[in-house]
Amino acid sequence: MHNRRSVFRDNPDPNDPEFFEKIMGVIQALAADGVHLELVSDEASQLTHLHQITWQSVDEELQTELSIVRDLHDEVCYATIKSKQSWISKRARELFNTQIDCYTINELIELCSRRFFDARLLICLGLLGRKPDAEMIRTIGAALDHDLPRARYCAARAAAITQWPAFVPDLEMMLKMETDPSAREMAEHALEVCEKKT
How far apart are CA 21 and CA 100, in angstroms? Predict the structure, then answer.
């Protein structure tokens, strides 16, 4: 399966009619390309702090699923496109990036390399990682040793999302020193998922 994401700037609310209209614009453009999607679920969970809306391809052979996920805990909203065919996930990401204001990897690396930055941008960066990338690894790895616990938590969350084994040494180092309970818990989880991929 080919999996791609688009991360929306400013954490939009899928219940906002203007934003939802843009999402529907992407779905209609995909339909014009022959990928017809139908709404299968719209769920908000207090337990996971997620609001997720999911569409699936009407044609089962296409094996395509598009989800809009709003993480209410970490204040991040993104689209995930999974498809058996690479061109569909590429096209969907292209449509999201042209119709909705989305982050780019280079922009996030630049923002997260500043002395003061919004820590949740690290999570946005992690969500965009598909294959291990040296600049992304350096940026997230450096933030695992940040002065602020919130930044360390977000960096560990980003490492967990990517599941890249390259983060294992930095996570092990972080856990030797970490005193913040939520950052520690996230680092333990990140280490577990990254080690599984080695």
Answer: 10
In degrees and rounded to multiples of 5, residue 192 shows phi and psi of: -60, -50
Query: How far is CA 74 from each of CA 57, 100, 119, 125, 196, rounded to the nearest angstrom?
Result: 29, 20, 10, 13, 24
Split at pLDDT 50, 70, 90, the class of 49 is very high
Distance CA 148, CA 162 (A): 22
Q: Could you give the C-alpha distances from 95 to 24, 32, 149, 156, in angstroms and in order?
A: 11, 12, 36, 30
Whether the full predicted model's pTM is greater than 0.85, yes or no, is yes
Give the DSSP H/E element, type plus range, for residue 82. strand 76-83
Cα separation of 19 and 195, whole Å? 38
Specify burial of residue 90 (Cβ count, 10 A radius: 0-12, 13-18, 19+): middle
Q: Is 96 helix (H, G, I), strand (E, B) or coil?
A: helix
3-state secondary structure 102-163: ECCHHHHHHHHCCCCCCCHHHHHHHHHCCCCCHHHHHHHHHHCCCCCHHHHHHHHHHHHHHC
**Mean pLDDT for the chain?**
96
Tell me the three state secondary structure of residue 12: coil
